[in-house]
Structure formats: C-alpha cells, structure tokens
C-alpha cells in the first residue's frame, strides 16, 4: 500500500474551474459557499479524483475499463488530505482512498483490464476561451419530467493539462482528465446544477471517436424525499466515447421567513413598541427569523451580520426599514464591536435585550489526531461569536434587568457521534448563560433549539423532521414579551412545541 498527501490551494480550485467550465459557486464563490452547510468553498470532486489518480502508473491507467468514485465528505482548499493506494498487481483492480481529518472523504475503485489502451496524450488543441456561465438552478419537480438533451463541451485542454501537471498528475491520460472534468461540469452546471452535491461517478469508456465534443444528458430518477438525483451522460469527442452514471443530491431550497409565515405562529402587534433589541447573526437562519419576529411586535431590531448583504436587504425589505436596522460587522472583532457600541451611543440607544444566534458552520468531526486542531478552532470560534458582542455591550448597553437569548441545541440530551466539538461548544455557551444570570443580573434564556431547516443544515435530509424556524422564533419572542420575573429559563421543544423550565433545575 502506497500513498501521498495533497493540499489543494484556492488558486488550484479556481484554475480547474476555469479550465473545466465547472464554475459552480460552491467551488468559487466564498459568499455563496458560506451560506451552505459547508460554510466555505469545497474542491471539485473531479479534481480530488484526478490528484488521487496520480498515484497510479500511467501504463495501467491507459487500460481503464471502469472507474467508480464515491464522495462521502468535502475536501476544502488549503486542507491536507491523504491518498492511499491498495492494489499493486499489474492485472488487478486498484482502490484509492482519500482521507481528510481522519475520515474517509472519497473512495475510487478502478478496473484496469481493458484490452484496448487509451491514448496518453491527445494532439494539441487550440485553447478555447471559457466564457463565464451561470449554472442551472432546478427544483426537484422540474427535473422529473425532463427529456434527454444535448450540449456541446468546449474545454480548454492546454489549461486543464497545466492544472493537473501542477498537482503531479501530468501522467494521467488525457481522456480520463477530460471525462472526469466533464462529469463534474455536467453535475455542477447542468444536473443538479447550482444547488447540487455530487455523491458519485461511474465512468465506463466506450467505442467511437468524433471531432466535436458532444454530451447527451438524461435524468434517470429523482427522489423528492431525500433529494437524490440519478442522471446519466454519454460523452463523445476526439478523446473517445464514455458513458457516465452520476449520483447527486439536490438541496431543498431554504425559504426565508416572511411576515406571512410568522403570522401563523405569532400575530403582529405593538407589544414591544419602543424597545431596542440587538440580534447577532441576523441575516439568515434563526437570526433572520428572530429579527422578523421581534420587529413584527414593534421592536427596533439592530441586526448584526458579517457579509450577506443580499440576505440582510431581503430581511429589511420584508419587515420594514423603520424596524430593522442592519449593521455590518465582524462580531468576533473587538474593534468592530466597539464601533457598534459607539454607534448605538450616538443614536442614544440602550438595549432591552440581545439574541446571540451566530454560529460556525456545522460539520461532523471524528476524535482523531488530524481533527484536533479543527475541533479546538470550532469551539473557540463558537465562543468568540457570543463573547465578543456580549462583552462589548456590557454593561452600558445591557444593564441589569435586560435579557439575553443564548442558542444551544437539542442534541445536548443525546449527542450524536462525531459531534463532540459541537456539544463542547454548546456546553460552554450554556455555562456562560448561567454566569450572566448569576453575576450580571441578566434575564437569560437558553434555547435548546430543535432541528430546523436552515442553510447551515441544508443537506439532503435537512428538512426531514425539522421544526419550522418561525415557530422557534415566535416562542423566543413570546418569552421576551411575557417578561417573567424568573431570571433564567431553558426552552426545549417537545414534539415540535416549546416547553419552558427553570434554568437552575436543568442539568
């Protein structure tokens, strides 16, 4: 068994996107990727596969009769991953395993028994400029009745060669490079397109050569429950022909909260008129829902957000510029939080309460030496997102008697495997909530939030069993309105509905 460690840079990913034509924003747009379950851009599955193939001798790759790649976890730029090769016999199959942070990210099974060899290098081609394209955006219902369709594939082969050469994969035969790049282009730009996640590729070389690259795409099946999409493609071109089966997931679109969706759980009123509230992380998810719920009750909501200008504009437009006051800042930065406090001073604002909803992207991590640094970073980042805004507002803007909402999680009662870092961060958050209750005189609510369908958990099954985000925001807002004299509460959701108990009695 042999292996090598690879680190893809952001420049590698951008170059592959430009050369292959797969400019899906999940790979190249930090703002888009930040709103996904991954929290940042991920490398193309095809690019990861090509770097892994560099560990197989070229004379064996030219006898490719079948390639199956299964993708289980993302690989992020600047994050090392390790490729191991199992199968050294000249006439045997080869298994490539790609591990990242101590867990299996991908597996590639190669059958290298074809009697007819693939050409190693194609004749030089004129470089084809890649115009900027926009990936298709589908719904599951729209995909189901689609007939087959054909699209040309104009690839910049010299540039593609430069990318794989820079990653020590120069000896991978051109046909395999082109087929894998085109498979990623089909899933990233066509089916499922913009909101898809590639789960697997099965590639089989076939007979036939034509001068112009042509791709026939067929949707074989769609599962509306899980978002599974099965598609096929037939490739034709100077490099030869191939058939490809593609397994992907189409993420269900997250519907942002609206006046109408909140009305079903909390009728609009003026019960919080004249109150000033700050929501940290108010552009999306629970933060956006809480911003809307509090504004619908007459409060002026100072909504802090980091980068999602478009999302924040949507929230403000929906709930009113007179009620929603966006403030763009990095809430982990001491100077920027001090600037927010100074801005509130100049506005003559003393807050009635604060909702601390910001959190890093969720992703499972094993207890493994390669994951320790990431786990520690996650816990630290989680605490920074609550402690910096909280400490920067105390005591002048959050005097004793004001309130604070701390967002924990229902998984505290039954922690999932590989979520130790997440549970540790929420345990620390709950400890700080008790600290604020006892020593700072704040009325605190620890929200052990149920599963909700938000951008941070928008995986293929993200909406299954999820409680409406508006219901959670409405329950928190009702707690604010009720103004119970008890200083500390825990809010859980039992069978989808809020249940409040004294924080002191909770373990």
From TrEMBL:
SUPFAM superfamilies: NAD(P)-binding Rossmann-fold domains (SSF51735), Thioesterase/thiol ester dehydrase-isomerase (SSF54637). Residues 5-81 form the MaoC-like domain. Keywords: Oxidoreductase. It comes from the Bacteria. Pfam families: adh_short (PF00106), MaoC_dehydratas (PF01575). Pathway: Lipid metabolism; fatty acid beta-oxidation. InterPro entries: HotDog_dom_sf, MaoC-like_dom, NAD(P)-bd_dom_sf, SDR_fam. Belongs to the short-chain dehydrogenases/reductases (SDR) family. This is SDR family NAD(P)-dependent oxidoreductase. It comes from Streptomyces hintoniae.
